[in-house]
Amino acid sequence: SHWLEAAGARAFWTTLPTRVAMGAACSSGGDYVADIPLDMHVSGKKKALLVGINYEGSSNALRGCINDVVNQKAVLKSHYGFEENNILMLTEAKKQAIIDGFNWLYEGAKAGDLLFFQYSGHGSQYQTWSENCDCLCPRDCLEEPWPGSIILDTEI
C-alpha cells in the first residue's frame, strides 16, 4: 500500500496481490477493507480506479481478481462514502483502457481530493536500461510484446 502526494492531492493505491509473478494465484476471499483511515478528513472529491484481471481463457488465468475489485467497490461505497459515479471499475482491461482510467482518475485532481487505485492481477518486473521496474500486466500483455503492452511503475 502506498500514498502519493502530487500537486497537493493525496493518492492512495494498493495492489492485490502485491508483486505477483506470472502464474501465481490471485488473492481473494472475504471483504477487503482498504488501508484508508475511516476517520480521514477529505475536503475534496473521492475518486477510485479499480482494475481486476483474471486473464480468462489463458494458461495464466487467475481466479478472484474481478471479485476483488467488485468487493472493493462495495467497501469504498459503504465504508468510505465514495459515490458510484466516482468509481471506475475495469475488468479484463487492456493497457490503453487502464491508461485511460488513470487519466480519468487524475483529471481535475486538486488539493484535498482523495484518489484511490487498486489493481488485482498479474504483476512482474521489467529490466530497463537503467533499472528494474515493477509493472502491471494488462490483459493484452499475453499477446503483445513487452514493454509496449505492460505498465511500468514509472508510468503511473
Structure description:
The protein is an alpha/beta fold and 156 residues long. Helices cover 18% and strands 28% of the residues. It contains two helices and eight strands. It has helices spanning 65-80, 95-106; strands at 2-6, 9-15, 46-52, 87-91, 114-120, 123-127, 132-136, 151-152. The protein has a five-stranded mixed sheet with strand order 1-2-5-3-4, sandwiched between helices. Strand 6 (123-127) and strand 7 form a beta hairpin. The longest helix has 16 residues, at 65-80. It is globular and about 40 Å long.
Compact summary:
The protein has 156 residues and is an alpha/beta fold. It is 18% helix and 28% strand.
Low-confidence stretches: 1-33
Average pLDDT reading: 80
Strand proportion, as a percent range, falls in 25-35%
Please identify the structural class as seen in this structure. alpha/beta
Largest sheet: 5 strands, mixed
Q: Largest sheet, order of strands side by side?
A: 1-2-5-3-4
- Total strand segments: 8
What order do the SSEs take from the amino end to the carboxyl end, as H and E? Answer: EEEHEHEEEE
From the spread of the alpha carbons, the general shape counts as: globular
How far apart, in Å, are the first and last alpha carbons? 15 Å
Radius of gyration: 15 Å
The helix content, as a percent range, equals 10-25%
Query: What's the tally of helices?
Result: 2
